[in-house]
Each structure stands twice: as structure tokens, then as C-alpha cells.
Amino acid sequence: MQQKRFQRRKFCRFCADKATFIDYKDIKTLKSYMTERGKILSRKMTGTCSEHQRELTTAIKRARNIALLPFMER
Fold it and tell me: CATH number, domain at 47?
């Protein structure tokens, strides 16, 4: 007989905190949404809503352009 595994529902951290915008200078937060290699994690993996995922990607790209975050890790 198979047991049902309990999976915690993913939620958008930005909606829960009622964040008005995602700051590109907040590197600590942005790094948690990236892999070690520098790729942006998808919505499926992080659980962010589509609105905040779009803001998140633009914030990460802005931080990369002014060299706060790396484009790629070796």
C-alpha cells in the first residue's frame, strides 16, 4: 500500500511580505533565486507568482549589468 506524501504548498514570498517592488540592489534576496552557476530559477522551483517572477528577472538582469551579480560562475 502506497503512502501519500505531504508536500508543502509553494507560495510567493513577495506577495506574503506585500513588497511593492523588488530592488535590484538587494543582492542577498536575488541570490536565493539563482543557482550556483548563475541561472535564474523558474517559477516552478521557487513558487513565486508570475507578476513577481517578471519583476525578479528584470531585477537580476539589472544587477548583472552593473556588475553586482555575475552572469556566469565557473
Answer: 4.10.640.10
